[in-house]
Amino acid sequence: MQTILFGVVDPSQRFNGYRLHRSLVERGHDSEMLVVSKRSKDPRVHSYSRLGEIFERGLYALERVSSLQGLLSPFALSFPGRQCFRKADLVHWQLIYPHYISTPLIPFLSRLRPTVWTLHDPWPTTGHCVHPVECQRWMTGCGKCPDLRRNFTIWFDTTAMTWKAKRHAYHNSPLTLIVASPWMKRRVAASPLLASLPCHLIPFGLDLEVWRMRDREACRARLGIEPGAKVLALRVPGGQKQRETKGVPWLVEAFHRLPIDRPTYLVVFEERGVFVGLGDKFKIIETGWLNDETQLAEALSAADVFLMPSRAESFGMMALEAMACGIPVVTSADTAVADTIRAPEAGIAVLHGDAEGLAAAISFLLAEDEARASMGTAGRSIVESDYSYDRYVTRHLELYESLIETR
């Protein structure tokens, strides 16, 4: 089988299809990848020239300023001329938006080869934003957008036009969709833009040798955490809008309400300096961004509880990784993470905005060793049964083969 995966960059991101591409090659399939920016030395990964990459980035900036999001880039017209595209039996799109494959060119490309599109978030269902959160205008045509600054930011309200452009493109494209969570599958089914397209649920997978239950005390010792302390782990992204989406302000409020009766650590991934004001209550360890999966797994394994109180999530990869390490998760009730942890099996889901309820959930898990251990064990069992990476790859291959045979 000859496949080609489209993404923005290869090894440096976790959701761009590079690892799937490598797994297909390891299984004997002729897989190649086409990206905007190449970071690996993999000869099967192809990218723009440096000049083309600069031009593409410039077009992306122009789309933001003009608010013609996903409408201007002509680069996809060149893809059929590439040898990797011409010889492919099937094409798989990963992180292609908002500018890599422009919306008007989706019908043209998807008719040339059987095309699968993995939706990593609800952006394809909206007039501009990645997560509409409480806004329901994505169901009726957008327009009169309540927040143009929400990622991806635009300067003028062109959301109704963009929504219509997407509707026209999708309704004229023989696409097959993949989503990773039941929450996203429900979102696709409710979308006037995507509901008519076939949609398959293929949850993300993990390498269960890397993501496993480890000696917690040894992991804590590596981070300098004192014996007998309690440990909370969480991720804080860069940018205020991103932090709001990930529920950080709500979490800070809950931390102020959280009763502490022993030394308690916060292990914070990615952004630094966000919890400086809580330094008198918690001992704070900031790891920065960890690209090494083993390092991340060891740091997660030092925790008693992992916190993911996002206002919006399409899957919750770090929650799954915490589950694989035997760590219970506290999250928001109305996001995909509640599905991923199968609350209350592997963690607790709290109604977003309820700071008192969030503090109570955290306090309960820190105090109740038996409940915490039970949820941790349940989380590991869920990952082993449903989220192995081998199963993830096999599911893709089964879908690919059925689409190629049908086409």
Description:
By secondary structure, the chain is of the alpha/beta class. The protein folds into two domains: 2-205 and 389-406, 3-Layer(aba) Sandwich (Rossmann fold), CATH 3.40.50; 216-386, Rossmann fold (3-Layer(aba) Sandwich), CATH 3.40.50.2000. It has helices at 18-26, 50-66, 83-86, 106-110, 159-171, 182-190, 216-223, 240-245, 248-257, 293-301, 317-324, 336-340, 355-367, 369-386, 389-406; strands spanning 2-9, 30-37, 45-47, 90-93, 115-118, 175-179, 199-201, 230-236, 264-270, 283-288, 305-308, 329-332, 347-350. α12 (336-340) links the parallel β12 (329-332) and β13. α9 packs across α13 (355-367) and α11 crosses α14 (369-386). The longest helix has 18 residues, at 369-386. The mean pLDDT is 94.
How are the secondary structure elements laid out?
Layout: E1 2-9, H1 18-26, E2 30-37, E3 45-47, H2 50-66, H3 83-86, E4 90-93, H4 106-110, E5 115-118, H5 159-171, E6 175-179, H6 182-190, E7 199-201, H7 216-223, E8 230-236, H8 240-245, H9 248-257, E9 264-270, E10 283-288, H10 293-301, E11 305-308, H11 317-324, E12 329-332, H12 336-340, E13 347-350, H13 355-367, H14 369-386, H15 389-406
Parallel strand pairs: 1-2, 1-4, 2-3, 4-5, 5-6, 6-7, 8-9, 8-11, 9-10, 11-12, 12-13
Helix pairs in contact: 9-13, 11-14
